[in-house]
Design a protein that fits this description.
Layout lengths: L1 H21 L18 H14 L8 H20 L8 H13 L1
Helix pairs in contact: 2-3
Keywords: Membrane, Signal, Transmembrane, Transmembrane helix
Protein name: Seryl-tRNA synthetase
Organism: Hwangdonia lutea
Length: 104
């Protein structure tokens, strides 16, 4: 019984400390550029190439050519993700966030 009360108190205290870290950011950051929504030209070229590969007729290609195309697409997708354009959240993280929201 005492153990349960102690655990509940620790959980309540730890949840009470979370809003302090959320408010630590500046309200008006000064280093925001006007081009935040514009993609770099290298990324545009890669996305165009990926779309070109998707629209290609692959039935006439050999097995090795298709394999090379897959490798090329994978490497381009990795570099686009690494460029920092977008937010990627895993499905496990989404499930944990939803569970925390439901519990609170």
């Amino acid at each position: 019984m005492k153990k349960n009360i102690l655990c509940l108190m620790l959980v309540a205290l730890s949840l009470g400390m979370c809003p302090n870290t959320v408010m630590a950011a500046d309200k008006n950051p000064k280093n925001i550029t006007a081009k935040t929504h514009e993609m770099p030209p290298e990324v545009k070229v890669m996305i165009d190439r990926i779309n070109e590969i998707k629209n290609m007729d692959k039935s006439s290609l050999t097995r090795m050519q298709r394999k090379e195309l897959r490798k090329e697409v994978r490497s381009m997708k990795k570099s686009v993700r690494a460029s920092g354009n977008g937010i990627y959240i895993s499905s496990g993280a989404i499930i944990i966030i939803l569970l925390l929201i439901i519990i609170l």
